[in-house]
């Protein structure tokens, strides 16, 4: 006799606040998980970049070297290097262990909004208010970028790299996808300034958020609109959006102090997470677990699906 299959459980959402970290670096401009989700990076308006333990909320290292507020950061696949960008027009490559500046990359004509390593951490890609994406070789001693992508007609607000593809969002209202192997450029016009772009985990779709308070999920190969997500407020700030680690939900920051979480397929609002009274500036979803980071003013919040870890922490101390 065959037993019926157990009902698939509804995916859990990170709705419990596990801890709040007071970063003490001015306003936190961006918060990012590292590659395995064990650490987090916080970018401060006081020119500093900080590395924290995600599970304990303890400060591990402070990186100082930028001349103005830090706007974005990314960790390498082996956790040995960090790249960061700033309003001081520079990109810095850091040695994680020593906290020293390995390279300071100059070339952008204005503040640098976004930065990311490629998969092997051999190239850093940076997007700036000057409308260009610059590609820097991390192993070379040359100070010029190996490539400059200048197709955008306005500021580059966001970029993501996945294998041989680069996705960029610009204030000119266009999402551009570069196939770096084939040398091709695909453009989707979204009519409103783009604040954030990302690939889905399966690599089949792109998600973009824009200043008309709408997120759009597009089929990567055809450009067909698969979903629209609304209800949050995004009118004047450059705020993050992302997908959950299993592509089940779409998440976005909002100017009303909440994180909005929609069911990807149905488009219905699954969770409206109350973070605080100010603008939720940044968010980052854990690469494999149901964990979420949010940044508001000078603090970072860590959210999880269950409350249990709080007890563990209390026992441990």
Features:
3% helix, WD repeat domain-containing protein 83, 4-stranded antiparallel β-sheet, mainly beta, 317 residues, cytoplasm, single chain, Methylamine Dehydrogenase, Chain H, disordered C terminus
Report the β-strand fraction as a percent range.
over 45%
Low-pLDDT residue intervals, each spanning 5 or more residues = 309-317
Proportion of residues in helical segments: under 10%
The best one-word shape is globular
How many structural units, i.e. domains? 1
Structural class: mainly beta
Secondary-structure arrangement, i.e. CATH architecture:
7 Propeller
Major pleated sheet? 4 strands, antiparallel
Compressed to H and E, one letter per element, the order equals EEEEEEEEEEEEEEEEEEEEEEEEEEEEH
**What is the β-strand count?**
28
Distance separating the two termini: 51 Å
Q: How are the strands of the largest sheet arranged?
A: 1-28-27-26
How many DSSP helices? 1
CATH superfamily: YVTN repeat-like/Quinoprotein amine dehydrogenase
Please tell me the overall pLDDT. 92
The protein's oligomeric status is: single chain
Compute the CA-based radius of gyration: 19 Å
Protein name: WD repeat domain-containing protein 83
GO biological process, one term: mRNA splicing, via spliceosome
Main location: cytoplasm
Subcellular location: Cytoplasm
């Amino acid at each position: 006799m065959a037993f019926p299959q157990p009902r698939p459980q509804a995916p859990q959402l990170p709705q419990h606040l596990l801890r709040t970290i007071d970063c003490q670096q001015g306003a936190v401009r961006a918060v990012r998980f590292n590659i395995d989700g064990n650490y987090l990076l916080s970018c401060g308006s006081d020119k500093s970049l900080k590395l924290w333990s995600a599970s304990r909320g303890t400060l591990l290292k402070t990186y100082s070297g930028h001349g103005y507020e830090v706007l974005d950061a990314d960790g390498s696949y082996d956790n040995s290097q960090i790249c960061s960008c700033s309003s001081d027009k520079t990109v810095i490559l850091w040695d994680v262990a020593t906290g020293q500046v390995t390279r300071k990359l100059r070339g952008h004509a204005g503040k640098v909004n976004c930065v990311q390593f490629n998969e092997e951490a051999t190239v850093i890609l940076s997007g700036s208010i000057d409308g260009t994406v610059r590609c820097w070789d991390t192993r070379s001693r040359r100070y010029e970028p190996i490539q400059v992508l200048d197709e955008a007609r306005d500021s580059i607000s966001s970029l993501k790299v996945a294998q041989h593809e680069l996705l960029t969002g610009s204030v000119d209202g266009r999402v551009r996808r570069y196939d770096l192997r084939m040398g091709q450029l695909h453009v989707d016009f979204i009519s409103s300034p783009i604040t954030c772009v990302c690939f889905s985990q399966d690599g089949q779709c792109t998600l973009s958020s824009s200043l008309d308070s709408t997120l759009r999920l597009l089929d990567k190969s055809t450009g067909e609109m698969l979903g629209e997500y609304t209800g949050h407020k995004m009118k004047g700030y450059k705020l993050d959006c992302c997908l959950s680690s299993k592509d089940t939900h779409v998440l976005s920051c909002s100017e009303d102090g909440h994180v909005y979480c929609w069911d990807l397929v149905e488009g219905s609002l699954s969770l409206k997470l109350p973070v605080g009274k100010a603008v939720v500036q940044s968010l980052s979803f854990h690469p494999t677990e149901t964990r979420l980071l949010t940044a508001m003013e000078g603090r970072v919040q860590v959210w999880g699906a269950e409350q249990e870890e709080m007890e563990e922490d209390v026992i441990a101390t």
